[in-house]
UniProtKB/TrEMBL annotation:
Keyword tags: ATP-binding, Cytoplasm, Nucleotide-binding, Nucleotidyltransferase, Transferase, tRNA processing
This protein's name: Threonylcarbamoyl-AMP synthase
UniProt keyword annotation of Ribosomal protein present: no
Predominant place of localization: cytoplasm
Gene3D superfamilies listed in its UniProt record: DHBP synthase, Threonylcarbamoyl-AMP synthase, C-terminal domain
Record localization: Cytoplasm
Presence of keyword Transport: no
Organism: Clostridium punense
Entry's EC annotation: 2.7.7.87
Residues annotated as domain YrdC-like: 15-200
Length: 349
């Protein structure tokens, strides 16, 4: 398959390119496109055969549900009911990096929801994404635009690397502003429940519902028979080619522990990569140290996380060691992604 690539300026969109990509969606094709979270891999969410192509292109397990993306607030064709608390969240945070889980209508095929009676719905805060959805005149199912299990793409080059030759069209735009997939909130339960942390944090959501909580499944390694209600809850995700280990504890002890592990691997002739921060990057004995940014700006850390994880695939390392982060605010989302990347392999310093 030949994949067409078109790069757009989000501030002055070429409507002809948008219409060309929308026609592919209408005809049952698959299009990668930018959003503010990560790049998405989109197809008509109401077309079973088109949705199958997403799973095939990604190599994605079919029990991993998809999120559908909308271009406006009219979600009534796709869901049975919009609870009051969901309306409040939509009014405050849409368009934006938050997905809400509803009981789905019969219009949404079971393949899209991975045979669940619920579906996640999001309105992206990206001009290209919303214009594509509106031009296609349908809701678009779109997981991240990468091979399943790899770090999600936050730039068009990563989409091309993973999916060129596997899909019909790649729409390029700016790098993703958030860099982490959307927060997912289950609005079918009372109180509402966070199924995936993201840039819209627990603390922000408490301003709407003080009883909101994080599903325990987010915090622990899932069992084999676990049935995910939202994307990313079950399988190992965000993984570069080399295994990742997280080192957790007081920062000085973390640095000492990482240096101890680095020395041990180097003595065995292994190449070690270290994921550090601006404050610690000069503290390590490894020749391969990459900073995520400043610990004083966790949004910057989140924005850079997937790009940094991907960067190690070109560095020929045998193992990647990463500092842990405080799991407050957006730090909860960062650690959620890191734990998935590491397969919950955490070393206490």
């Amino acid at each position: 398959m030949k994949t067409k690539v078109a790069i757009l300026n989000e501030q002055s969109l070429d409507k002809n390119i948008i219409l060309e990509a929308a026609e592919i969606i209408k005809r049952g094709g698959v299009v990668a496109f930018p959003t503010e979270t990560v790049y998405g891999l989109g197809a008509n969410a109401l077309d079973e055969e088109a949705v199958k192509k997403i799973f095939i292109a990604k190599g994605r397990p079919q029990d991993n549900p998809l999120i559908i993306h909308v271009g406006d607030f009219n979600i009534s064709p796709y869901v049975k009911e919009v609870p009051k608390v969901a309306k409040e969240i939509m009014n405050k945070f849409w368009p934006g990096p938050i997905t809400l889980i509803f009981e789905k209508s019969d219009k949404v095929p079971m393949i899209t929801s991975a045979n669940l009676s619920t579906i996640g719905v999001r309105m992206p805060d990206n001009n290209i994404a919303r214009e594509l959805i509106l031009a296609a005149n349908t809701t678009i199912a779109a997981p991240s635009a990468n091979i399943s299990g790899r770090p999600s793409p936050t730039d068009v080059d990563s989409c091309i690397e993973d999916l060129s030759g596997k899909i019909d069209y790649i729409l390029g735009g700016e790098n993703s502003e958030v860099g982490l997939e959307s927060t997912i909130v289950d609005c079918t339960v009372n109180p509402i429940c966070i199924l995936r942390p993201g840039a819209i944090t627990l603390e922000m959501l408490k301003e709407i519902d003080e009883n909101v909580y994080v599903d325990p499944a987010v915090l622990n390694k899932p069992t084999e028979d676990f049935k995910p209600k939202a994307p990313g809850m079950k399988y190992r995700h965000y993984a570069p080619k080399a295994p990742v280990k997280i080192v957790s504890g007081d920062i000085e002890k973390t640095i000492a522990k990482i240096n101890e592990i680095v020395l041990n691997y180097i003595e065995r002739g292994k190449r070690v990569g270290v994921i550090a921060t601006d404050e610690t990057k000069n503290s390590y004995n490894s020749d391969i140290v990459v900073s995520l940014g400043s610990r004083e700006n966790l949004y910057e850390i989140g924005q850079n996380l997937f790009k940094v994880l991907r960067s190690f695939d070109t560095m020929d390392v045998d193992i990647i060691l990463c500092e842990a982060f405080n799991e407050q605010g957006v730090g909860a989302a960062i650690m959620n992604r890191l734990k998935k990347s590491a397969g919950f392999d955490i070393i206490e310093a």
